[in-house]
Give the backbone structure.
Amino acid sequence: MTRRKFLPLAGAAVVGTYAGLKLQRPPKLPDGPPGNSAVSVMRARSYSDDLVSRMLEGIRQCGLNPRGKRVLLKPNLVEFDSATVINTDASVIAAAVEVFEKLGASEVRIGEGPGHRRDTLDLADDAHYRSTIPKFEAIFTDLNRDDVSPVRGFAEESEFYFAKTVLAADLIVSLAKMKTHHWAGATLSMKNFFGLVPGSVYGWPKNKLHYIGIPESVAALNRKFRNTFAIVDGIVGMEGNGPIQGTPKPAGVLVMGSDLVAVDATCCRIMGIDPEKVDYLRLAADLGHVHPDRIEQRGETIASVRTNFALIDEYKELRLA
Amino acid sequence: MGGPLRDFVPLKLSLSSADFSSVGGVYLQSRLDFLRGAQNPDGGWGYFPGKQPWFEPTTYAMLAMQGKPDSGAALDRAWKLVRSWQLPDGSSRPGAQVDGGTWVTAHAVTLACVRGVYDAKTRAAVDWLLKVVGAENTLAMRAASFLHLLKTKLDVSHQGWPWREGNASWIEPTAHTLVALKKAASQYHSDELDRRIREGEDLILSRKCSDGGWNSGNPNVLNFDLPSYPETTALALLGLQGRSAAELGGPLDLARRFRKETKSSLARVWLTIALRNFGDAIEPPADEARTSNDILLAALEALGHPDGNFALLHTGGRV
């Protein structure tokens, strides 16, 4: 069959399918929850800066009190490539461990379930996690291969499985990397929760999430886990063809907050991306604040730290005016 | 570079290597001892000692211990457990704590073939695998692919296997299923089984990355070529055993390079197992005791040792 003859026959089926493949953006963003959200932008020009002090200040500015809580730190550990900036930097994680211990958390653990089928501990080794983070192996859980329990009410699934370490946490801290992303536009604190889903049940990458839809899954994960905080590693981010093949982009910031929607919206503005055009933020806009009038910016202003991240052609339309 | 490509010549792989006069007693024994000690009371293995049992580590622990001295009772307990995870539709759950059949059904078939159990339950597992098709193999998706509406450059005309029924096909579950069905072919031969094996092989070959190996299953996104991964390349090669030298020469060379360069212990051992099944004479590992408490890794390391059971994953020539 020639392409010309095939087109009319396939057209109807394709329209329906394509509607599912390319998310339909709702016409207007919802208002979000009552009140405003605090987001702290702390300048950090290098990983050798005093990150502990900056995190303590950012957490104070956002009003978080983790005392007595079981804290799970969720870094973005993706690939073997210590020469680039794919993974959350080890010094950011080490600082976060120290900070939450100082603030009286009853337990501080690190958990990650990388999206690719790699040796997670070797991956952590290559990213200098073992050498930089005290007692790393004692506090780290591979969420892909942890014991699991079912939960109800995730996405439209009757039952969905999560690692027990995730379900046991009182506070999940997304230690994300500030990167562009070839499926989602940007990957920040909310997309980082893909690593909470166990590969042992859903495969590598987390096939079920891709099938549900990436923006839908990002929103669903953040709808499920509400006791959260974000510290985004934008000291050196990634621009261009992220989240793996992009190039390093120094932004010189840590971005923090309890409203992950507001944190990601702020990160987008720092990266020169219009958050109102990012599909997963539109879908999650009832969970937190995208609009700048509802975000109380603490620390640095966006204008003072904004540095446009290069975007691939597919996402040029996301550029913030 | 490793041994010659001999994939179109029936390989006779012995479980005891004749290539090396001295093979590591401590290396292999420490891993087998660890596996014996880490078996849960219910007969299964978790990914780590003392954790919930899962089908995947239980499969590789069983393969590693198959035929080894004093392993019979442990293997029988494990077999009884994994059989209890089979569902009425023939599929297997990935562990006692998870409902619904998944990709591990391929492991159930492989284990049954290794143990020579060709009963109604094994038949049901094979039938389930033959029934399951990746969800991207639909008219609508083919049309979308034809019209270049997808972000990926995928040939969605082939039928592979998903991690879970109702999802898209990926390289790894397809490779595991090819090993299982090729092993089962002598007992459950049918035109449909042959067709699905060819389809699965063609799906893997169609998703080869530009560097000659395989990643999870997307060789190109938004016109950017994506790199392959050592682990998936090894598994893809296991699934493609029996294909021609023209098709596999490049990937095998890449696998040999990956094996030398990778920082991933999991990748190194998967590549070792795959390359040994293609006849490569790989030097034995240093005769050192196990250092990790990762049960899957320990089982695969035991399996990939020259005196290990790597040939249990050999599937011979083309069907």
In short: Confidence is low (pLDDT under 50) at residues 1-23 of chain B. Chain B has one domain: 25-313. The two ends of chain B are 28 Å apart (CA to CA).
